[in-house]
Amino acid sequence: MPERFHNLYIEQLCEVMSEDIDELACKEIIEYLNSCPTCKVYYDTVKKTVHLCRERNVEVEIPEEVNIRLLKVLKIEGYCE
Amino acid sequence: MDEKILVERAKGGDKAAFAQLVNTYSDRIYNLALRILRKKEDAEDILQETFLTVLEKINTFDGRSSFFTWIYRIATNASLMRLRKKKIVFQELSDHSDFQESVESRVFIDWSQDPAANVYTSEVKNKIDDAINKLPDIYRSVFILRDIESLSIKETSAILNITDENVKIRLRRARQFLRDHLSDYFDERIVGNNA
User: From the list A14, A52, A62, which residue is nearest B128 (CB)?
Assistant: First the structure.
């Protein structure tokens, strides 16, 4: 695959990953990906990057003392269950 | 109770209604701030600041956007202001600057299947944190909202007051920045193991 073609797909690769692209275009990009090892590696490593960042940023509960301080600052301690 | 009714009641000074809004959004706002600022103390400050702003300005909320978009905009702006004050923002790049997006002449190593990328050692965690910390703020906010918080492009653009197209550009650059940063680490590992 000539190198200059890779860049044409960078934008679409990003949209495929986020499912921000219509089904037909998505299918075309996936076919292209399977024919271009360079873009496939790029796509897989970006996807893995996003996955790693998500796992590192899992939702946490507000610590109890933080919540208590918040309600106090807002003067609504008596209004919360 | 319907959120619109809660907001109207809170506007009228109903503390129970306001408390219910706090209860609904406090976890999400805390997590959003923590993800942008990476420090618990800062996340707590932003949490308090956000709800104090809501309390002060709820009468200016006109319902043109959803309450969720409005409160997320307040929290995101406060978090980004804090980032700038702490001067942990690296180079602020415009959407049209010479960000290297080209894959031409670049050799990619596939580290996505590297076992180390599936085990969260403290070293890998540090690399991820380091990469996010180095992500310029205009890209960080989009990445956090879109890829971590899983908001839609429409929601992200409404919160950041930018176009959908800018969300897509910034998201693409954010992902590439993070990928390149993590690749430095994983590529070196793979090359080292094969030497």
Answer: A52
Nearest residue of A to residue B172, measured between CA atoms:
A14
Q: Domain range holding B137? A: 115-194
Phi-psi region of B110 (alpha: psi -120 to 50; beta: other; left: phi over 0): beta
Is B34's CB within 8 Å of A60's CB? yes
Distance CA B174, CA B114 (A): 22
Name chain B contacts of A58, Cβ cutoff 8 Å: none
Q: Write the ipTM.
A: 0.86
Percent with pLDDT over 90 in chain B: 76
pTM of the model: 0.87
Mean pLDDT of the region B150-171: 95
Sorted by where each begins, the domain ranges of chain A are: 3-79
State the smallest CA–CA distance between residue A46 and chain B in angstroms. 5
Domain of B119, CATH number, reads 1.10.10.10
